[in-house]
């Protein structure tokens, strides 16, 4: 029996589009053909389970081999197989999906999640790398004859009988000259490991099974141990540090979704390591671009998400906009929030130990997701300079008595650098104030979010002003200096500094405070910080020069001494020494000024 015909194409000129443009990456051909072979294996398994196939299943396996001399790649399975009529029906009619028809026929007879095929186009990806494709197949049906099909990439094909004794299908690709790179063992193995690492049927290549058909995300959490989760993490990310904890996703309504998300250790710096979560559809790797499926703030997580309900484009290469995507995104957000709340309630000390690593996730989530913020307010922690942790509610109680201003606002003082801002921290603590540590890159954004969400609160960096002015209680100190002396002192410092970016003010402060301090306006500094971390619309602040306030302590003995000096040069020399000390404390004394200061100090000024 031999027959020649034309492939039925339902859309004019679609064949060259499929061959050349449908798949952006040519290596996809192997994913599609191996997925089809797995599909065929799953089908025979299904038919056997419902009694429609009573023969021996044998060991279901997909084999991939290549012959460099003959320039062929072969994908073989012992699945359901096809008759000549089925080949004409499923192969020659492009976009008629055999998997779709199979699922429809048997939808009332059990689970259909194992059937991968959907679009009916994957087979033709073979022509991206092959100048000729050959199919040899024998159906599971009793008495059926083996059939062969050949096509050289045109719309013509040849179909006839074949010699094949066993059930299943062989796809033989005769590789084109411009695609001979795929005849390398390393290349084929890397593609198979990328796309087929967790396919549900064993994939054999070079006499070795290269996949794990039963990854732990397909199992019930109750059947798994911590060791299982850690072993799987090592399988996904060899040589990486152990994760802090993980979340097992498992939902079947209103969509199907399974997976495991791991919380890695993240240092204080923003380690935006993308492509750490892999998206699968029925254990077939799709992409690691999961920004629509996973909330932005969880892109730092590692792991796997698998869903047959994720809408893919026709080449199964990327996501399409769909309401299910938003539902899945919301579900993952809720699941993560619930897990963090559970960890906090069940073992707070352990949660506090992990917070240095997970605080970044939590703060990022609170900034970017309103629903997450509502849940996270109960377990987001702040740490004071004595290393004690508080929830936001606990901290509100902690500072209420000492840090409420005359208008009833609670003022939260914070430091971004404990060592650099030590003098200011000590001044605040001496007045009975608490200071919290906010030293990550996103904390400027976090502070802004919290100010807008927590009623009657203000957040000020501890060096934003003189300690007596950080919290305006309505009580003002009297200055020892007269108004005339204050003006004189101000003029001396302005002439000494000679810098328009440093604004001098002489104010009454405690005599125990430093003779001069350097501060920066909270609003301007915060906007500048946000611009550096990509704050929307904040670029103008990052470009503006930094302006600093030099506050001279009118009640300090050294300033009184300066005011009493009659010699102008002596006044300026002392003013220079005092201002240099203040600038040095803020790391603002640099270059030649710093060198001169050191020389004067060493010289015993």
TrEMBL record:
Domain of life assignment: Bacteria
Organism encoding this protein: Aquirufa antheringensis
Protein name per Swiss-Prot or TrEMBL: Chaperone protein HtpG
Keyword ATP-binding: yes
Pfam families (alphabetical): HATPase_c_3 (PF13589), HSP90 (PF00183)
Keywords annotated in UniProt: ATP-binding, Chaperone, Cytoplasm, Nucleotide-binding, Stress response
Binding site for ATP: 32, 36, 77, 82, 97-98, 169, 316
Annotated Histidine kinase/HSP90-like ATPase domain residues: 25-179
GO MF annotations in UniProt: ATP binding; ATP hydrolysis activity; ATP-dependent protein folding chaperone; unfolded protein binding
Gene3D superfamilies the record matches: 3.30.230.80, 3.40.50.11260, Heat shock protein 90, C-terminal domain, Histidine kinase-like ATPase, C-terminal domain
Similarity-based family: Belongs to the heat shock protein 90 family.
